[in-house]
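Protein Record: Sequence and Backbone Structure Tokens
======================================================

Structure line: whole-number tokens from a learned vocabulary of local backbone shapes, matched to residues.

Purpose: to set a sequence beside its fold so the mapping can be learned.

___
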Amino acid sequence: MKKLAVFCGSSNGASNVYIEVAKKMGRELAKRNIALVYGGASVGIMGAVADSILEEGGQVIGVMPRFLDEREISHKNLTELIVVDSMHERKAKMADLADGFIALPGGPGTLEEFFEIFTWAQIGLHQKPIGLLNINHYYDPLVALFNHMTSEQFMHEKYRTMALVDAEPNGLLDQFNKYVPPTVKSYN
């Protein structure tokens, strides 16, 4: 893996643990020489991940829609900032650049990005690893929902296992390195 996309909040969250583990993720990416692809913001968990990888000499590529860049929330010290015209173009560019995808805690936007990329894997549009960094048990309800979807036969087990989960960055990245995508019917 050369580049990983990270979806996460532009807020700090209710506990300092979110920022601390986000920074830990950035340091781990830098240590493994994996570039960060992310939304390009300087604030919240997004900014913390970017700052920590930059502090360690790592590479950071931000993808920011023009309307957000004009609000001056884009990070000014990135390796590269790609300004696009829309949120749809942002997601497509991030998906194109990345070799895998990790969701850190965030709100509806983070979940929307995660679910789109997860759905794309289910229908065979990509075979890249997808993970949830389950900081402070943040994603426990989502993991429980995935298990419920599977037991209620709205999701096949092979799709449920596409979502790799770990509370620690190094554990999740180790799972990414071992990831073998399930066979799915491709619709492209």
The beta strands are 3-7, 35-38, 60-65, 80-84, 101-103, 130-133, 163-166. The chain has a mean pLDDT of 94. The longest strand covers residues 60-65.
